[in-house]
Amino acid sequence: MKTSARLLMLITGVVILSVFAGPATGSLAAPEACTNPIFASLLESLKSKTSVPLRLPLVVGGDYDAALYADVGWVGNARYVVRIGQQCERSYCPYGTVSGAKISERAGRPAGKAVELSGGVTGYLADGSKTSKNSTITWDEEQYRYSITIYAAEPSALVKVANSALSCDNR
pTM of the entire structure? Predict the structure, then answer.
């Protein structure tokens, strides 16, 4: 009997702690905890101007995040484009883009090689790492298409960035 009471108290304690601690990861995490600092100043503007759910990655350039910044390239009700720049001598050194758009009825399959992303999502990767061109990963969620482009990114790095976007709910 004492073992049952102790077990019940232990379970109750774990449940209470988990409620106060909140979720550790995943789409239920608070947006602030799952937003790369380069996007923080853009969140409210994007949310107020587009109906496309945001998928902004937590990981962008890894160790280089401190040298990156983001600005709104374009935003409308059915589409957004966020440009990512790199601090450099010129006024703007492009690093990549993050975008989301409502899929039109005529949209075909995204270009690139199929790769598995988090949550069983299929992404399509166009590798530009060997030719010093843009590498792009694109995936569809419900009625929306998301795309992340990073100049000459290795496929594994781009998959990591996409998975971090899938794990964050910035809506």
Answer: 0.77
- d(CA 53, CA 44) in angstroms, rounded, equals 12
Buried-state track 80-94, b at ≥16 Cβ within 10 A, e below 16: bbbbbbbeeeeeeee
Pairing relation of β-strands 144-151 and 93-102?
Answer: antiparallel
Please tell me whether residue 7 adopts helix, strand or coil conformation: helix
Q: What pLDDT, on a 0 to 100 scale, did the predictor assign at position 144?
A: 97
* Closest to 34 (Cα-Cα) out of 58, 53, 54, 55: 58
Pairing label, strands 134-141, 79-86 = unpaired
User: Does residue 92 form part of some domain?
Assistant: yes
Please count the other Cβ atoms lying within 10 Å of the Cβ belonging to residue 101. 18
Does residue 17 form part of some domain? no
| Count of domains forming the chain | 1
Residue 134 lies in a domain: yes
Split the chain (171 residues) into runs of 10 and give each run's mean pLDDT.
42 34 38 78 95 94 82 96 88 90 90 95 94 93 96 94 90 68
Strand partners, 94: 85
